[in-house]
Amino acid sequence: MGASHEQPAPDAEDERARVLALLRHHGWNATSFQVLQPGFRYWFAPGGDGCVAYVDTGGAWVAGGGPITAPERVREMVEAFQQAARSAGRRVSFFATEARFSQLVPFEEFPIGEQPVWDPANWDAVLRGSRSLREQLRRARTHAVRVREVPAEVMETPGHPLRAAVEVLMEHWLASRRMATMGFLVGLAPGAFARERRAFVAEVGDRVVGFLSVTPVFARDGWFLQDLLREPSAPNGTAETLVDAAMRAAAANGRRYVTLGLAPLAGPVSPWLRFARTAGRPLFDFEGLRAFKAKFRPDAWVPLFLSHPADEPAPWAVYDALRAFARGSLVKFGLVTLLRRPRFFVRTLSALLVPWTVLLALPVSTPWFPSPWVQGAWVLFDVGLIVGLLLLLRRWRDGLATLLGVLTSADACLTLVQALTYNAARARGPWDWCVIVASVLAPATASAMLLRSRDLRVPEP
């Protein structure tokens, strides 16, 4: 089988129209509709009866779910897709597959989490059995939260007041995230293919305080409650009221399958993913997300997998998937995330500065300074920085962050002057030069990150 990437690139809109036509017949994975988002490439079967949607990370083709085709064609398409990827020098993996995939394809399964599913016909029974859910809905009603469905024409019309309000809400929500904006299967584009979606807004008076975008899961006659957003100041129960409205609409429309999507790292995952779940809590509350979805009392939790060939190790597949979500560069993603949540950086900087300052104060460091009083001045300067960083850790203040950024800039400049006028002539080998370069770059880097994090920081409790 050949691959479409070897042919002249078709128009992106034409490609997505072809994918949408296939989705209407074979869109079985809960995340299948998301592959219409920008950033995906499409590998089409020569006969046009299926495709694989993927992102190219530079080292791998990472597919979003399984092939979009009839079940009996899945294995053949996976084999051809894998062959095309290897011809292009790429590894291959399939993200967010379910057990059906491994029953059809001899790939390894690596558990990455689980997703809750409901039959919306049972929603009234769920509410009857959950006092806490009923209480949240009551709180929302008490605060005059009302939910209504948004016509597709509104979401299709740039500049429409309601769409503009939703876009403002999206901006606020994205700005409040602890991590850098991700790509792959989690992009926000509720206006795209609006006639295929359903959308709901929660309002208090004329103010939009919540939004829910619903995408179809065609082959299951179901819905994926994809983007559930709320303003930080929204009344309690806003999110629950949006879910309640969507569940009732799904039942009224005869849907038999609803999901809230993947709860990453939930369920029976590997020990090192459990460690990542705990260690990553300052950046993403994995357990909190799972608990939020669990409060709606799903009918079942379905495990999801990262599927990969047996001859390609699971760590490579995980790395490739992370690069897909990071939109290519894990380093850039990590730096932006660090700047948005700078406490870890400040804590690390403080921990490193303490032994550095002690080292500066020792007699063994005296030859690095023009005189003992210069050495003493640097020690006092660094002690002051440590105190400032500890105060910043205790309570973040933009003014203090700015002051520390300016001081570390001065540190870098003065260190550079001393390095050029005194230390360079006395350097005796590579080790001395490494110390000199590190002495200049460390405060310069700290200054840049302190000043930049002041602008990008997400408020922390």
TrEMBL record:
Keyword annotations of the record: Cell membrane, Membrane, Transmembrane, Transmembrane helix
Keyword Transmembrane helix: yes
Source species, domain of life: Bacteria
GO biological process, any: phospholipid homeostasis
MF GO annotations: aminoacyltransferase activity
Cross-referenced InterPro entries: Acyl_CoA_acyltransferase, LPG_synthase_C, PG_lysyltransferase
Coiled-coil region(s): none
Database matches in Pfam families: LPG_synthase_C
Domain Phosphatidylglycerol lysyltransferase C-terminal, chain residue ranges per copy: 22-306
GO cellular component, one term: plasma membrane
Membrane topology: Multi-pass membrane protein
Record's subcellular location: Cell membrane
Protein name in the entry: DUF2156 domain-containing protein
